Amino acid sequence: MKPLRVGVVGLRGIGQIHAKAHADNPLSTLVAVCDVIKSRADEVAALHKVKAYLSLADMLDAHPDLDVIDVCTGGFENGGWHFEPVMAALAAGKHVLVEKPISNDIGEAREMVRFAAEKDRYLGCNLNHYFTEPARMARELMDGGKIGEQIYCLHRMGFIGGAATYAPGGGPNFDGFPYAHTKAFLAHPFSLMRHFCGDITHVQAFMDRPSFRRGAGDLMMSIASIHVRFTSGAMGYMFSSRGDATMGQGGWWSFELGGTKGTFLIENCVEKLTYFPAPKAGDKLGLGEQPAPVVTDTGAKDFGITFPARIKAFLEDVSNQVPKHKLRASGRDALATLEYTFAAIESHEQGGVLVRPHPLPPLKRDLRDQ
User: Fold this and answer.
1) End-to-end CA distance of the chain, in Å?
2) Phi and psi of 78, rounded to 5°?
3) Residue 299: what pLDDT?
4) pLDDT of 288
5) Cα 13–Cα 19–Cα 23 angle in degrees, nearest 5
6) In sequence order, what are the residues at sequence separation of 6 or more whose Cβ sits closer than 8 angstroms to the Cβ of residue 48?
7) Is 352 helix (H, G, I), strand (E, B) or coil?
8) What domains sit in the chain, N to C, each tagged with a CATH number?
9) Helices marked H in the chain — which ranges?
């Protein structure tokens, strides 16, 4: 299979991670990199022995045979500079992988997904938190009937911290934007909840910031408490914080899904999966007792392994020409997370009212999959 020819746009930390992942993967050939800062573009290009450009237009003109453009630009709320390069790459007939959030603007996100469908190109997003060994094993439990009918999910994700570690500011992408954390961060927990539990039909949210942020004049809504209902009827709860507290089990990240036949718990994304089987008929259990759990510790500690794993999945899907509705972590999936995020913001701004997220575009099934 011929490797896909890739160009990476945006070369700060995340872009450099993506560039290395493409350079290291046999399914891709890193051809060119692009950044508006010349020294940054030249440094990454020299490291990987590829061409450097200051604009996407120049990169596309010089390499019309590129297959994939990987958009890692940042911008306001970490998604403000995604729209233009994504649309330009799609217009040039390229497949696109874009960093999360797909955008900080819901209208732009909807247009990107619509345009990708119009151009019949793959549009993927770096929703990398479920491209892990614990997530794979959890899906096996579900597919094997070990969870049963879903009853609830609990997802808690946030940087570890507190008043003593808080530093005012946050950089130009975050400072002065009340919903920067909400838009930039909630793509991940919403993507996990939807990956395991399906579409969300109802959202209720409360957001706030602690006193040390208020005292510093920090406008960021850094705490989010969100209650949801899924199409299946299962209930979900998500809590997110940006370094405002030190969390318990699972450290910075935990996801628990409970059903009629069992429950699984993933801790710290890549590290551990615990399966709690439901009691069987005839089990003699006292109050608070339960059957012995099955614990699998992967030995992994480095969250960074999720990036090459997710990028590999995108390269596999494009190389294998999977039906576009089967693309893993697609633009439509990323749009769903942003629809839920904007529903949560609306709910919060209206005092915690129940909000129904904007409907997703219809899932267009490939004729090969009929």
Assistant:
1) 26
2) 65, 5
3) 97
4) 86
5) 145
6) 19, 20, 23, 30, 33
7) coil
8) 130-305 (3.30.360.10)
9) 13-24, 38-48, 56-62, 83-91, 106-119, 133-143, 180-185, 187-197, 211-215, 306-319, 331-349
